[in-house]
Write a structure and sequence with these properties.
It contains 4 helices and 6 strands, in the order H-H-E-E-E-H-E-E-E-H. Strand 5 and strand 6 form a beta hairpin. The protein binds methionine sulfoxide. The site of methionine sulfoxide (SME) has 14 residues, from helix 3 and strand 6. This is GAF domain-containing protein. One of its GO terms (molecular function) is L-methionine-(R)-S-oxide reductase activity.
């Protein structure tokens, strides 16, 4: 396992993703524990891309339940039909929200969160978890984030 993460903070966002994704893959290769791998993945995303909040909600017990994350404390349980995470779960697709205040039903875990991207991990037609990334800046997520985070969700799918 790699002992430290190397992501030059002078790189562009796309170059950071390109540097980070192979390191996350290397970091998790050979480890079969899902929680351990997801924990390192969110820590690597926080460190490499300096997100305000990044973490997962698992589909369990008929709702979305908080899993490993980095950032301020967050709400623990989200009903399937609530918030951006619920929309991602229900629609089974990535949701990009440039301005959380303009998203009906958005759940504000932190008033500092301004924009958000949520991506599903789908296995055998079922959403296993959603990855939620929050920014304290408006309109901070674009097609670059979507492209590379969707690639990362394919890696997570392979852990199931
Ligand atoms: N904003 C999310 C809730 C989770 S927190 O942002 C960590 C939502 O609306 O689903």
């Amino acid at each position: 396992m790699a002992e430290s993460l190397i992501v030059d903070q002078n790189l562009s966002k796309e170059e950071k993703y390109k540097a980070l994704l192979p390191q996350i893959e290397a970091l998790t290769t050979g480890e079969t524990d899902l929680i351990a791998n997801i924990s390192n993945m969110v820590a690597a995303l926080k460190q490499g891309l300096d997100f305000f909040w990044v973490g997962v909600y698992f589909n369990k017990e008929g709702q979305l339940v908080l899993g490993p994350f980095q950032g301020p404390i967050a709400c623990t349980r989200i009903p399937y039909h609530k918030g951006v995470c619920g929309a991602c779960y229900t629609q089974q697709q990535t949701i990009v929200v440039p301005d959380v205040e303009a998203f009906p039903g958005h759940i504000a875990c932190s008033s500092d969160s301004k924009s958000e991207i949520v991506l599903p991990v789908i296995k055998d037609g079922e959403v296993k978890l959603v990855l939620d990334v929050d920014s304290d800046k408006l309109n901070n997520f674009d097609e670059v984030d979507q492209k590379y985070l969707e690639q990362l969700m394919k890696l997570v799918e392979s852990w199931y």
